[in-house]
Amino acid sequence: MYQPIAWKEDHILLLDQTKLPEQEVYIECRDLETVADAIRRLAVRGAPALGVVAALAVALEARIITGKTRDEFFHELQKLCDRILETRPTAVNMKWALHRVTEKLQSADTAQVKNLKKMLEQEALAIFHEDIEANQKIGIHGREIVPDQATIMTICNTGSLATAGYGTAFGVIRAAAEAGKKVLAVSCETRPLLQGSRLTAWELQKNNIPFVLITDSMAGYYMKKKGADLVIIGADRIAANGDSANKIGSYSLAILAHQHNIPFYVAAPTSTIDPDTQQGDDIPIEERKPEEITHIGNQRIAPDGVAVWNPAFDVVPFAYIAGIITEKGIIKPPYKKNIRKALGENRQETTD
Fold first, then answer.
1. How big is the CA angle at 48 (ends 97 and 308), to the nearest 5 degrees?
2. Whole-number mean pLDDT of the chain?
3. What span, in angstroms and rounded, lies between the C-alpha atoms of 25 and 262?
4. 236 is catalytic
5. How far is 87 from 50, CA to CA, in rounded Å?
6. Lowest-confidence range among 140-149, 236-245, 308-317, 339-348?
7. Does the pLDDT at position 223 exceed 60?
8. FRET partner for 320 with CA separation of 20 to 30 A, picked from 64, 107, 166, 339?
9. What is the CATH topology of the domain spanning 142-351?
10. pLDDT range class, residue 118, cuts 50, 70, 90
């Protein structure tokens, strides 16, 4: 129906999300810097998508590494990884994906640079395809908690646009609808960049899923007056204790859901879990340029010179989360123990 990321023989195609919903325009990326620019501008976004795109971009750029020896190749490869990692500090999937490809190459029994380049491309493409499969499994596990006639509130965009395909929190909604359940999605607009109204609404229409669009500030009153059965969000990084960083506004939704006794779930692949980050306060939160708040498009909506605070993410404490829906199943409290168990199973399967 639509493919947000496509790998071609000598370039990567990225659906430019800054143009949606008015235009469906693809960016032709033939080098790492074009991909990095797309990431910085949010032309491509979403934690799983960023992991996939980072790996593909490094594989593409590594083709022109001139080092002849194994050591020279790895030295140049690390520079490429560092360049792409600078673009978005909060989403851990880029770090995870690049660690995976470099670890794979370092364990390879070859010193030939041409073989290492080929292996790098193969591993990047494996991450690409595995992300789609993981998202579909998230949908299968998640749809079990969705009652028929369900109203599901969400924020930001967690669909195919935020992943290699299918979606995480959006994928749960999609899987429930595909299973024949009658669902109504409630999409928060997601200020300041309106990913909910521009992107999630676009995807809901594409998938023929009934929905209502509301402003972020309407969420609590919607819960009180109309009700909701679930709140499901995505995540950019999940700490070892279950604290989850997601698009700004997620923390508020969690508090509102708690007040109205609505189960609150996070949906994300296990690659979004960062066992090295112990708690939410340790997650680096990206702060973005003031113009995202003072302007809508090119139109200024705030007085010139105003002070602006613009964190792109906030953190939902684990105490507000009923479960973390992953491709391994739904992780329930106690999170420290059960996250370790889920990651241990994941590592074992990878080793096998």
1. 110
2. 95
3. 38
4. yes
5. 10
6. 339-348
7. yes
8. 166
9. Rossmann fold (3.40.50)
10. very high
Enumerate the domain spans of the chain: 5-136, 142-351
Which position among 16, 216, 236, 314 bears the catalytic label?
236
Distance linking the first and last C-alpha atoms of the chain:
34
Rounded Cα–Cα distance for residues 211 and 222 (Å):
13
Q: Give the per-residue pLDDT at 180.
A: 97
Exposed/middle/buried for 133, CB within 10 Å: 0-12, 13-18, 19+? middle
Residue type, 332: K
- pLDDT for the residue 297: 86
For domain 5-136, the CATH superfamily is: translation initiation factor eif-2b, domain 1 (1.20.120.420)
Pairing assessment for the beta strands 237-239 and 244-247 based on DSSP bridges: antiparallel
Strand order in the sheet with 150-154: 211-214, 183-188, 150-154, 230-233, 264-267, 323-326, 329-331
Please report how many Cα atoms fall inside a 13 Å half-sphere around the Cα of residue 291, on the Cβ side: 4
Q: How many residues does the chain have?
A: 352
Residue 84: is its pLDDT beyond 60? yes
